[in-house]
Amino acid sequence: MKKLTVLMLVVVFGLALAAGASATPIGDNGGEDNLQEILDKMTLSPVPGKSSVDVVNDQLGYDSYWQITATGGSVATMIIELSAWNNVASFGVYDASDKDNFVQLFSGNDAPGNLVLLSIDENGKVYVNNSPIASATFSSTAFGYYINSPTEGGGKFYSDTSLNLDNFDHMVAYRGENDFVNMPSPRPDGYWTPSEYVLGFEDQYGGGDYDYQDLVVMVESVKPVPEPSTLLLLGAGLAGLGYLGRRKRNG
After folding, report:
1. pLDDT of amino acid 208
2. What's the DSSP call for residue 121?
3. Who contacts 93 (Cβ-Cβ below 8 Å, separation ≥6)?
4. Which residue of 3, 94, 115, 210 could cross-link 102, Cys pair, CB 3.0 to 4.6 Å?
């Protein structure tokens, strides 16, 4: 009975990790639109100028790693870039098992409205904009997002907080609530659905002004997945429960 209780606690702990920690504070530097204002200004309905998404209370519980859910791939659209380093900053994806294995999607030359198609096949081969040549091969179909900006103290930051040199969460993510939104040209206006997510990045080491609007990107046809360590923890706990269950039946 004691062993069963311990394993149950392991599973519960793993689920708690998957649910995520407390919300990341969102700042307002006063000189530019903050992240909430950006989402509000995008919203055309059901309440014009007021997003159904609250940037503090509606953050995803976990957003470190992702998978593509559509056969055609995932489209990423740049919404806005307010970074002081926007002419050199880049955005892309990295292998969930190797942060140094990455593929750039946006460069400093890209602007709001630019979009890119990301595809990853079952063998982990990564393709950009339907290129017949793979840009990289990941260890699986799981990936994280990154921003690379030459800020003081190091400027490549990952959606997995544990990989950041400052141990700071540089990305917040929000799921669509079916608001009808205004997209930057040439993208047409449309619904921000639950299969689409807005990612907001903070590009300063240690958090800077906590504004998370240095780069704002919408990604579609993706879903967040538990971190590899969480999956291992859950797997070990569930396997242990299964083993004890078999012992009880055979005993």
Report:
1. 82
2. -
3. 102, 103, 105, 118, 126, 143, 144, 145, 146
4. 94
Q: Give the phi and the psi of residue 213 in degrees, each rounded to 5.
A: -125, 20
Fold of 26-226: Jelly Rolls (2.60.120)
Residue 194: count other Cβ atoms within 10 Å of its Cβ: 11
Tokens of 114: 């630019």
| Residue-wise pLDDT tens digits, 46-64 | 999 999 999 999 999 999 9
pTM: 0.82
Read off the tokens for 71. 């056969």
pLDDT, mean of residues 39-43: 96
Write the pLDDT tens digit of every residue in 168-186.
999 999 999 999 999 998 8
- Torsions phi, psi for 188 (to 5 deg): -75, 155
- The β-bridge relationship of strands 136-137 and 125-128 is antiparallel
What angle do the packed helices 2-19 and 228-250 form, to 10 degrees? 150
Q: In a 3-state reduction of DSSP, which class is residue 11?
A: helix
